[in-house]
Each structure stands twice: as C-alpha cells, then as structure tokens.
Amino acid sequence: MKKSLLAIAVFSLTIIGCENKKTTEKGTTPTEKPTLSSMTYTDHHSFSKPNEAVVKHLNWVATVDFDKKIISASATYQIENKKGVDSIFLDVRNLKITSVSTDDNKDAIGFVVNERADFLGGQLAIPIDESTKSITINYETTEGADALQFLDPEQTAGKKSPFLFTQSQAILARTWLPCQDSPGIRFTYEATVTVPKGMLALMSATNPQEKNETGVYTFKMEQAIPSYLFALAVGDVEYQSLGSVTGVYAEPSVLESAAYEFADMQDMVDTAETLYGPYQWGMYDVIVLPPSFPFGGMENPRLTFATPTIIAGDRSLTALIAHELAHSWSGNLVTNATWEDIWLNEGFTVYFENRIMEEIFGKDFANMLALLSYQDLQDEIVWLNSENRSADTRLRVELEGRNPDDGLTGIPYDKGFFLLKLMEETVGRKNWDKFLNDYFNEFKFKVMTTDSFLEHLDNNLLSQNPEWEKTIQPRKWIFEEGLPDNCPIITSTKFETVESELAKWTNGGEAKAIPSGDWVTPQWLHFIHLINDTLNQKQMHELDAAFRFTQSGNSEIKAAWFEKVIPNNYNGLGNSVEDFLVEVGRRKFLTPIYKALLKSNGGLPAAKAIYAKARPNYHAVSRESMDALLTNK
Q1: How many CB atoms within 10 Å of residue 47?
Q2: Percentage of the chain with pLDDT > 70?
Q3: Which among 56, 231, 63, 216 is positioned nearest to 139, based on CA atoms?
Q4: How far is CA 371 from CA 356, 376, 551, in A?
Q5: What is the spatial distance between Cα 353 and Cα 430, in angstroms, rounded to a whole number?
Q6: How is residue 615 annotated by DSSP?
Q7: Are strands 334-336 and 446-448 parallel, antiparallel or unpaired?
Q8: Looking at residue 290, what DSSP letter applies?
Q9: From CA 121, how far away is CA 449, in angstroms rounded?
Q10: pLDDT on residue 529
Q11: I need a surface site. Which of 158, 250, 374, 566 has the fewest CB within 10 A?
C-alpha cells in the first residue's frame, strides 16, 4: 500500500559527530576527553524531514492588519536538499496558503496540505528538485492562529491603541509561520514588517528603539534559532536603556515602573557571563506585555517577553528576569532536541537562575527560592499522581501522541533543578562550573538529547570519580518516577524565622505583633504556604487586616492568598478574585485559583461565571487549559 504524505507524522534525525582523535607521528593516540559520536532522536511533533531537506534562512515580509486581526505574509526560505529528494515538508496549522513558488519556478506551483484536526496541524509538501535553492510561501493567518493574540485598546494599559503579541512555544509557530516546527531545527532570519503608523514592531532579532514615520520596520537575526523562538510584538510601546546591552520596552504608562523594577538587569547579564561564559546574542532587552500574556516570561532571543505581574514596586519578583536571561545559555544556546527533553532547557535554567540570584542577592535569598521550588515540586508530584499521571513525574517524559504542553509541568523545572543541585554538591562547585562552561561552549547553537547529555556527563565529569555516579544516580532521577531520596536538603534562616513567627500566631499570638517589616516576597509566600488549610473567618480577617493580602500589589502574594482562603469561603474578598482573574491571563495563577474556586461553596457556577467574562481576555494557551478544567465539569 502506498503511504500518504500524512502517514509520516514524525522525523528521526541522526547527527554524526567527530571522534576527536588525533594521531601523533609515532601513530599513538593521546588521551583526550571523548566526544559524542552520534545523536539520534525522533521528534513526534513535526511532519518535517530535515535529514532529507531542511530550511536554513528565512526572509519574512509581513503586514499586520489590526482591523481583520490577521497577518498577511510571504516566507522565503533558503533550503538545503541534503538527499536530492523531490519534496520538502513543513508544518502548518490553520494557515491560508495562497501560493507557493521556488527559485527555479517563479510561477505558482502545486503544493499539498494534509491537515489534521488535532494540535499537530498538518504537513505542507512543496515539490523541489536537486537544483532548488529557495521556496516562497504566500499566506495569511486565520482565527485559528493560536500563537497570536490581538488585543483591543481596552485590554492594554494605555487603553488607546491595540496590541499584538505572539507565543510560539511549544508548537504554535506553525499557526503563524509555515515552518519546520521542531526545536532541533535552526534557521537565521531577516524580516520586514509593516504595522499601522504610530505603533512599534519588535521581534526576536535586532530591534528599533523608537517609532518611525512609515510603520515599516526591518529586522535581522544572525544567530540561528528554532521556530519556537520566532516572535513578534506590536503596540504603542517606548524604550528605556538600562545598561550597555540591556533595556526595557513597555507601554508609556508602564515604562517608568518597569525600568525601576528591572534596574538590576545589566548586573544580571554581567553576573551570568562571569559564571558561564559570554552572552552570545548582542542586546538583552525585555518587553512588558499586557496582562493577558499566558506565562511569566518567554525567552525570545534579544527580547524577553514578560508579564506585568512581576512589577511589584520593590524589585522582589525579578528572579523571573534572571530565569529568562539564563535561557540565553540553557535553551537558546544549547537546545533540547525534542519537547520530551524539555528538562534540559528548564532544569538547567532554574539552576542558573538560582546561581545568578545568589551572586546578586546572597546565599540565603537563593536558598529561599530553592525551598519554594521544593514546595512546588512536592505539590506537583501529589497533583500528577492524583491525576493518574505519575509517569509525568519523570524528567524525560513520554509525549508521543500528546500535546507537548502536557510536559510543561513543574517537574522539568524543579526536579531538574534539584538534580543539578545534587551534581554541584557531589562534585564540588569548581568542578561543576567548569563542566557547565565547557558544555555551553562545546554545544552552543546545537541541540541536546537526554541520552547524549548522560553520555557527555559520564565522559567529561563522572568518569573522574566513580563514587560521584553512585552518589548522584542521574538515571534514577531522569527515568524513574517521583523524587529520589537523595534530594539535596536546603535550609534558610529567614524561613526558620517565618516558621517561628507563624507558630506563635497559631498558638494564640496576634498577627499584628509579627515583626514582618523587613520580610521579602519569598518569606511571605512561605508564610502563606504554611498557614493551616482550614482557617476560620476570624483568622482570615485577622491576617488580612494585618498584612492586606487581598489588596496586595504583589501578584504572587495575592494569588497565593486567594489559593489558600477561597476554599474556606473567606467573606472578605469582595470582587477581588473576579477582578484579578478577568485582568490577568498568566496560567500559573489561573489554574490554582480556578481550582480553589471549585473547592468553595457554590464554586462551580461561580468559576464558570467568572470565566465567561475573563475568557475573551486570555491567550489561547490559557484558554485551552481553563477549558479543560471548567467546561467538562
């Protein structure tokens, strides 16, 4: 039976490397650290076949239409036909392809789109031959472009101009760009983007710092990136420099507070470079997006996308910026080959983030962040087990036939962090830092699989001392469920103080007597986390009166408080929960707060009523999660 194009829904890729052996004049081979001889992996989430024909460079010409809420574009790829095949395959989902041509056939040529009805979209097959050097695809986005969120003026801070931002991770790039949508495939790009006059366009590339009179902006990304890092934002935004390679973009009414909040960014970049080598991307800027952005941040090269919920007024939530900056090494520089290896991006990044925060704010502050990660990890394991998803507590998660977003739990972040923390404590920080520096340098702008990382770890670190492997047991951490019993134990004197003060209150003390004037956000989060889950009305009112949790300008504190008191039907919340859920689209907050509502009296109809109002303000990523949580109840 002849297979249809759609029958092949994954690609397997083998990268053959050098053995790194040098022979002397006498024919002997000197002792050297062995290198990876090959890397083989299968991406279950792409229809492309990059081992046959692969994209290398993109020239993207686009017009953003806010009235129709679409992007009309032309994508011209320089390609490499590795095996002289007769077709190149790209991933698409809900795109309106109007025409396709090649460099050796400027007229429109035939093409085939085999569309599926699930999250993978479909396969775009374009005829080529051995002489074809480029392909051009003319297309428009549709309402099904889940990567795009067009915001009306009233959904922005300024309330005067519309806004557009993209979110391509994990496999949403294909909803606004025909592409080989796999983290293992990199391309450079240049772009010309036309937007309405009076608005500024920005991309994950070289960026303008002020608006022009034409509304036409050009971009260049000279370092090759995977498609999930292809990003665009358009809005009424302005720029403020924060250092030699750092700055912030935000709506005018937000810019001053954002610049104050992110004042340590240049110090973070400098600190990161001293830890793990040169920053490879030129500028490191951040754009503060409207509150519907579904994540805390997104590590788009040269332009981190950030939620305004990290602007607390006291610079207490900037660990998120350290996290996204750290991705400039772990993720953007050395990238997980597939989404099943996501812990290689996120676990490394949480570890690196913690090291940056330690260098800038001290060991005890970093320890507090690590202990919060430990609490989150324990909660995540309990939740996954309750959902019959214990297999997802492994670091290397199986995602064949599943949406890759299923793997974006707290496990790759927090369990990954503690594995790396264990490695550091076992081999010593000096040895560990040397290993990481060499790792980032050797594999920069390349991909990494879990198996290949373990091979590299064995060859270049653990082989130095057989006891290290026995102590760490990395394969147990990676391939087995749950949290191993050799997890590092971290302590914090500041958390011990919090625990002591909470014990006094629990035993009859007054909340207003707690000496909390110098507490920072991690201490407050620890305090709320440890509060008894069955508070009565008097206790909740006392705590709220003393510390004003319900009115807090710190989104992390407010969300943690809501999660704690909503199930206890706290009558002092007023409309604060609804207001928060309607305004904020960050999935980290939405999921636990809606779950808390479901536990309260009359929770289901209340949750559904709020969601009906809030849903139009949420990005597709958040809508999908909340739909799954609420619509089937």
Answers
A1: 27
A2: 94
A3: 63
A4: 16, 9, 26
A5: 18
A6: G
A7: parallel
A8: P
A9: 25
A10: 96
A11: 158
Are 586 and 614 within 8 A, CB to CB?
no
pLDDT tens digits along 185-231: 999 999 999 999 999 999 999 999 999 999 999 999 999 999 999 99
- Beta strands 122-127 and 112-115, pairing class: antiparallel
Max CA pair span of the chain? 85
Kind plus residue range of the DSSP H or E element containing 542: helix 537-547
Where do the domains of the chain lie, and which CATH numbers do they carry?
338-479 (1.10.390.10), 498-630 (1.25.40.320)
Residue 106, beta-bridge partner list = none
DSSP per-residue string spanning 596-614: HHHHSTTHHHHHHHHHHHH
How is residue 123 written in tokens? 């396969």
| DSSP designation for 27 | S
Integer angstrom CA distances of residue 601 from 250, 439, 535, 577, 606: 40, 53, 15, 15, 9
H helices present in 194-298, as ranges: 252-261, 265-276
Q: Which helix (H) or strand (E) holds 624?
A: helix 620-630
Contact 121, 174 (CB under 8 A): yes
The pTM is what?
0.92
**Amino acid letter, 101:** S
Q: Residue 23's pLDDT is what? A: 33
310: left (phi over 0), alpha (psi -120 to 50) or beta: alpha
The rounded distance, in Å, linking the Cα atoms of 418 and 552 is 31
Q: How far apart are CA 185 and CA 209, in angstroms?
A: 30
Query: What are the structure tokens assigned to 87, written together?
Result: 């077709």
**If you average pLDDT over residues 318-342, what whole number do you get?**
97
Q: Give me the residue label for tokens 């800038």.
A: 360
555-581: pLDDT as tens digits:
999 999 999 999 999 999 999 999 999
Residue 39 in tokens: 């890397």
Q: What is the Cα–Cα distance from 542 to 552, expressed in whole angstroms?
A: 15
Q: Read off φ and ψ for residue 119, nearest 5 degrees.
A: -70, -15
Backbone angles phi, psi at 399, to 5 degrees: -125, 10
Q: How many CA atoms lie within 13 A of 371 on its CB side?
A: 23
Task: Determine how many CB atoms are found less than 10 A away from the CB of residue 455.
Answer: 17
pLDDT value at position 8? 38
CB 320 within 8 A of CB 299: no
Q: Any bridge partners for residue 127, and if so which?
A: 87
Q: What is the pLDDT of residues 606-630, one digit of tens each?
A: 999 999 999 999 998 999 999 999 9
Residue 72's identity, in one-letter code, is S
pLDDT of residue 542: 97
Percent of the chain at pLDDT above 90?
90
